[in-house]
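Q: How do we represent a protein-ligand complex in a form that can be generated token by token?
A: Start from the inputs.
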Amino acid sequence: MNILTFDELVEECKKQEKNIYELIQEIEAADADISVEEVRANVKLHIETMKSTIETGMKSSEKAISQWCGDDCEKLQKRYANNKALLGILFEKIITYSLATIEENLRMGKVVACPTAGSCGIVPSVIIAVAEEQNFDEDTQIDALITAGAIGAIISNKVQLAGAVAGCQAECGVAAAMCAGALTQMLGGNITQILNAVALAMKNLLGLTCDPVCGLVEVPCIKRNPILAIHAVTSSELALAGIESKIPLDEVIDAVRQTGQLMSPMLKESSLAGLATTKTALKLKEKIFG
Ligand code: SF4
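Then emit the structure tokens for the protein with iron/sulfur cluster bound:
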């Protein structure tokens, strides 16, 4: 894709009088020498995988090798069997689907990394739950996922999407940004609102560290997924109301990049600081690895 910045994306969309997914699916088709229909069919496969991951994840409570994670989705479902979620069924579905997906990743199940495996529960939970609750058809979900992909791809021109390079702001943070943009597309937002949703989601996760306990993608990664899925929804709602990020999106991404560079390597997936070196984390490490 030859679009490197969000300003270029806006310019191109305006020039061609297309919205983000229309433009990107054409670029993808041209790059891969396939038809737009084939691009959309591929995206549809990803959506089907997301759904089946959620289904499988909701049925399982198998724990990971560490034995401390894997049954959170089951616990949440038990809670909702007897209690209504404070914020309603959509909220309930989003956090349940998000946990179901990320716990499947923990069990080495099949997930759609979007953008990474450790952040795989954010985008699918919102797209699938909102589609179910708002009766959005398959095409609307495909449009949303293409929009999310475009956002992730453009961010990755400036920021490597890896906790080891730029901290969790570049994994769960970018997933939340992609998700906010995708949801805004789904809910009929215009390009300005979509990019504002992305900026609002992203800039409020600046500096998010990657300090996995015992070096496993479990703590804090798992619970970070449902929490940031809701963060993405909030960002989208704000943007749809016309609330803008005072800092333009491309500049927010520059700040993510700079923050990642300034962040100590001890907080970038090395497990040498932060949560990973708390008293409890060190005890867990001793227990698992001896
Ligand atoms: S904390 Fe680190 S390992 Fe866990 S999801 Fe974030 S970037 Fe990935």
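Residues 197 and 236 are 5 Å apart (CA to CA). DSSP finds 13 helices and no strands in the chain.
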